[in-house]
Amino acid sequence: MANTIVVGAQWGDEAKGKIVDFLAADADIVVRYNGGNNAGHTVVVGGETYKLHLIPCGILYPDTICIIGDGQVVDPGVLVGEMDDLTSRGASIEGLKISLNAHVIMPYHRLLDGLEERRKGGKAIGTTNRGIGPAYADKASRIGIRVAELIDPDRFRARLAENLALKNDILTKVYEVPALSFDDILNEYLGYAEKIRPYVANTNYIVHEGIMAGKDVLFEGAQGTLLDIDYGTYPYVTSSHVVAGGACLGTGVGPMGIDRVIGIGKSYTTRVGAGVFPTEQINKVGEYIREKGHEYGTTTGRARRCGWLDAVALRYTVMVNGLSELALTLLDVLGGLDTLKICRAYICNGEETDKLPGDWEAVNDCTPIYDELPGWTEDISTIRDFDDLPANAKAYVRRVEELIGVPVSIISVGPHREDTIIRD
Ligand code: GDP
Ligand code: IMO
Ligand code: MG
Q: 345 to each of 305, 351, 369, how far by Cα in Å?
């Protein structure tokens, strides 16, 4: 394997967890580079289902080093819960490392996430309410608290005092809700610090020295490109660098350290939360996909909005990530539909275009133009060789490749590690 970025190619939940777990069989190090416990990555191994929110999906391989990277925001209570859950189920967390630089999600971040959403009313983003946006905002404002400070009680006490004075002013004077207790937060967080301290490390050097030693590093992205703070459907996005470039920013590795960039794309499209979604199907097709694909959020349990594959959006994703290939996932879910549609272009301002308009507001006024392809009825979940797929499924995959301009190198036909087709 080479040093490989795995990046979500749509609006998240593309089965990055499954593909990272599959590829991690050949990795020495898996490092997550962005987001926090807004992510929910599902891995199914040996009949057991694991839902990981902060810890990289390589953790189920006992000898793999798994790093919570600099670019992540860490809710330490959630992290400790995830560590305990893994160990109670017999998984080893010996290889877990947590970056000194990752920022800490505090109780006021979670509270403000909800309050800011409520203030937005009809323009609410539909966040996961995990404090992600407020934590990244503090990082950019240079008042965030990092893991290095969390594990040093004196520094943590001082940083908490500074921050809580400001946050309590905002809570009480702007939002008119009760202030948070300094002592409660201090005691709770010092408890978490004790548990995570043994795993905290200077992770930049671990990744860098691994690469220099010829080890294989997998960079695990969270969310999807269209939720990226710069390249997504702003303001209906998350607050981190989701795109492949975020792997460099969030781990301290230069672009020359990367060999391969795999986009993970569903065979259709889903989105959780508000914002544009040109190919959304609020009808029987959308319901069919939601029920067959179990399209309910891994983190919040919300029903995911479902629709056809959008090749205009995917082509954009190929471009902004420099994708070398696509892993096409959940292909089995499309089985049983008579006709499948792929959006190949939009009509915007009366003109046909295969590009996104640049201003996301304008996408609301664009109409998708669809290619129609015949479906298949066979269950494909046990197929392991591309040639054995029904002819219509092969034609669907080939049409996707033509439309997006990069090969589909991996096809996922089920949630289990082994439900995977590798193409030559
Ligand atoms: P992630 O956030 O990108 O890791 O994706 P999620 O784990 O949130 O959502 C993907 C869902 O699809 C999970 O429930 C997976 O177990 C499931 N899954 C993954 N690959 C496949 C597949 O090829 N077919 C089917 N039917 N389910 C899959
Ligand atoms: P994974 O890694 C799908 C969405 C939220 C909301 C927006 C902002 O499992 O693919 P945030 O809480 O980040 O401020 O919410 O982003 N969102 C996701 N949607 N999968 C995710 O992660 C997501 N993480 C955030 O629903 O629309
Ligand atoms: Mg998910």
A: 21, 10, 5
